[in-house]
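Continuing the series of single-chain predictions for the mutant panel. This is the parent chain; the variants come on the following pages.
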Amino acid sequence: MKGFHERNDSLNCSSKASIDSSPTPGTGSEPGPNDSKFSKTSLWSNFFASAFSVFDTYSESSSSSACEKKSSFSKTNGWTAAVKRVVSGGSMRRIHERVLGPSKIGISSSTSDIWLLGLCYKISQESSGDVDATSALAAFKQDFSSRILMTYRKGFDAIGETKITSDACWGCMLRSSQMLVAQALLFHRLGRSWRKPSQKPFDLAYIEILHQFGDSETSAFSIHNLVEAGKNYGLAAGSWVGPYAMCRSWESLARSKREENDLECQLLPMAVYVVSGDEDGERGGAPVVCIEDASRHCFEFSRHQADWTPILLLVPLVLGLDKVNPRYIPSLQATFTFPQCLGILGGKPGASTYIVGVQEENVFYLDPHDVQPVVNLSSDNLEADTSSYHCDIIRYIPLDSLDPSLAIGFFCRDKDDFDDFCFRASKLADESNGAPLFTVAQTHSVFKPIIHGDTMADAGGDRMDDSIGVLPTGDVDGNSHEDDWQLL
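Parent structure:
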């Protein structure tokens, strides 16, 4: 989409070599897309993947065979063990922390209210031991840990015609988007008040949702099917994409699944509307929620049988150059107060996370940068182990440290819910001092583009012409830096 461009700054692999039974996500960066070929950073990710593969294959050989080949292996593959030690030890973690900043775990010392996907938790009296505040803090933790976590997986069937059986080091944007869509399904089928029960058997709807995000072609919303649906937007196994391409890929996948099934058997029982700027963003400008377009999406989803259906709104944004312009931060914070809020696909440059809550200047997130063994749950196993789909560790980062390329999600259950969303969004735009995240209009005829590109003007540059939201590597003069790379 012209007007939406992404970053491809860095690569960062998960620093964990062993996997605990409960996920403990780490930090990481991903390689940026470079059209049909991998960037130099992707080559480095393949380098590490190959190193691990050789090491693991060697480790699985019998002890007697290992003794016979010890000398030869030491000479020819000794570097493999060295790489393994660097990445799985503390060295890579220290590199992460130096570049991205140390991980912040828990809840900050602030006593301000916490907003988590439209719900407010008042903990202002926590320091004085107020019973209600203590209860609110416990309720927040339970709510956070009930959100569905999707992380890197290893050991699944190869994606398409590739030999790729893990999305480690490249799939964080896909995993983040899976989390957001999974929350939409959770809200639709079980309601916002649902919490993961402490005892089995689980809710059938909950298990069915997890099953749909399994890592195989038979699961509707698997990474396999996402890659296939997003080919026209730059998705490819082994390469990283930005928020805009990811949103369009979900629109494409939802359309294909809708055509495969009867209306009564829709796996994603909601219309998908990717909110873009004037003329689909070709002239830049703030995205516009067009009520006519939303109604048309619902009408088409229902196959012309209903004027309105549940609808998933995906709003890709670019809110600055190197970092989010401070003018947009109050509006970003306010979106978490919307009852329709599904959170944000965003994170540090090249390292996507799923942001679910905010407290003052910090945002809480679920981190996909942890490699776990593949788990494909059957749709009716109410006794399944779902621990790898949740996380009790609360992580947060400063809001102003987010990459300016991100996407916001909203879920509207019915027409009244959508009308309420439009009212809140219009009010937010009116109070934005001329810097709205997006606007609302009844029809296309009243669109008035509001350029997010004030940051581009400040930099003395023009917005790049980019139809799929990818910013090519190069300097302001258009010179390609093919030899520049970073290993984070």
